[in-house]
Amino acid sequence: MQTIRGFRDILPENIALWQKVEKEATRLFKQFGYEEIRIPILEKTELFARSIGEVTDIVEKEMYTFADRKGDKLTLRPEATASIVRSYIQHKMYAAEPVRKFYTIGPMFRRERPQKGRYRQFYQIDAEVFGVESAYVDAELVFILNELFTALGLSDLKAHINSLGCAECRPSYQKALLDFISTKTEHLCENCLRRMDKNPLRILDCKVESCANALTDAPATLDHLCSACDDHFNTVKRALEQQNVAFTVDKSLVRGLDYYTRTAFEILTTNLGAQSAVAGGGRYDRLTEELGGPPTPAIGFAIGYDRLVEVMEALDNVPTPDVLDLFILTLGDDATHKGYIWASELNRMGLRCEVDYRGKSMKALMKRANKLNARHVLIVGEDELAKNALILRNMTTKEQTDIQVDQVVDTCLARLKP
Ligand code: ATP
Ligand code: MG
User: Is 335 helix (H, G, I), strand (E, B) or coil?
Assistant: First the structure.
């Protein structure tokens, strides 16, 4: 039996970087006042269709959707924002506290062509802020991403930011865009032609080469912002400049989901070939209302966790494996029984300790101690027990000390505890 295409196991030998990322991210979230939320993996299809948008790649082509035994249409979540908005509305979170900051970490599912940095089950680290329209929250999210990547040793990452405007300025922009696009229809793919009526902004995000070429001189949202959006974007830029966060204003950045307004951003790397975005996010000031909640400004980001780990692997940024403080090498039943009791106690008290219970020879056990990277080995053979002098060997210096049987736990704790 094998995993499904695009799905994969993350094996223990590769988990260290995943844990390092998660530890750093949760530390930062806590520091900045973000609360963890856990949302279901399965939702009604309608939630994603309505929030992400019917004519987006995700909804049209990438979702895992099926009918359950009663015929309800369900979808494996392709992203986290929609579910968090649903949860925010369902639990009337706005009533208790107008400003909420959340994070969540978990698997997402999109049926796209698998390749390096692109899987059908992949992981995201997601953050969302509800209830604040201020541009300082936009800056804070980019700042947190920058902090995280710096803490992880990734200095080559670049933030690209743009503003997509709001309900006020979007119509005049869309008109300018449509006027432009209607002169280019012969170069556009079928999908884009269909998108023209539904959501012309989507066309700017099309990956088909002829579409992208035809649109190089398309009007930019930035040149059509109303004064409120302009002020908002200027505040984001000013804050980031003052915080020394390097960023590029990227007029062509539109993001592949329908719900974005105002600030949109992506963090790009040069280390992953075509799959260059390690994180993306933006404001969605109208989504909560569109899904049936009260008008609530909001903004969030999602980090591609798999890609982040791959960038770190590419940089050889791999943490050193855990060491074993003590290997208790036991020969014979009596020694093994004692070894088991000592090891349990030492592990409980904070010393990493192992015993091999397979009844192997001295030579085989020494080999295993070396393989496990043990810093010390306690030799417990019949002779040592008879003489009440167990041998504690420092595997680095080769120095040996005798330890009495009733002193094992205390001595090991005193001498070996990191
Ligand atoms: P892309 O343009 O690479 O398809 P996207 O715009 O579809 O990305 P988002 O929906 O913004 O991606 O998701 C945020 C992040 O999640 C992306 O920047 C990327 O790092 C990661 N991501 C998206 N899809 C996948 C996938 N199939 N496999 C691995 N990571 C992914
Ligand atoms: Mg995509």
Answer: helix
At 159 the three-state DSSP class reads strand
Q: What is the pLDDT of residues 137-177, one digit of tens each?
A: 999 999 999 999 999 998 888 899 999 999 999 889 989 99
What integer is the mean pLDDT of 81-106? 97
How confident is the model at residue 79, as a pLDDT?
97
pLDDT of 41 higher than 80: yes
3-class secondary structure, 384:
helix
359 SS3 class: coil
From atom 25 of ligand 1, which residue's Cα is the shortest distance away?
118
- Per-residue tokens: 169: 């300025």
How much distance in Å is there from the Cα of 370 to the middle of ligand 2? 45
The residue whose CA is least distant from atom 12 of ligand 1 is 280
Task: Please tell me the distance from the alpha carbon of residue 66 to that of residue 77, in angstroms, as a whole number.
Answer: 12
Give the pLDDT confidence score for residue 220 in this predicted structure.
94
- Pocket probe for ligand 1: among 124, 208, 310, 311, the residue whose CB has the most ligand atoms within 8 Å is 124
Confidence of residue 275 (pLDDT cuts 50, 70, 90): low
Q: Look at strands 374-380 and 324-330 and give their pairing.
A: parallel
Question: How would DSSP label each residue in 191-244?
Answer: HHHHHHHH-GGGGGG---HHHHHHTTT---GGGG--HHHHHHHHHHHHHHHHTT
- Separation of CA 277 and ligand 1 centre (Å): 7
Alpha-carbon span 290 to 234, nearest angstrom: 27
pLDDT of 258 over the 80 cut: no
Average pLDDT over every residue of 116-145: 97
The span from the CA of 211 to the CA of 194, in Å, is 13
Q: Which residues line ligand 1 (CB under 6 A)?
A: 79, 110, 112, 117-119, 122, 124, 256, 275, 277-280, 302, 304, 306-307
Per-residue pLDDT, 2: 98
Q: Where are the beta strands (DSSP E) in 46-200?
A: 64-67, 73-76, 100-109, 121-130, 158-163
Q: What percent of the chain stands above pLDDT 90?
A: 83
- pLDDT (0 to 100) of residue 113: 96
Task: Match 């390097």 to its residue by tokens.
Answer: 246
In the reported structure, the alpha carbon of residue 78 is separated from the centroid of ligand 1 by a whole-number distance in angstroms of 10
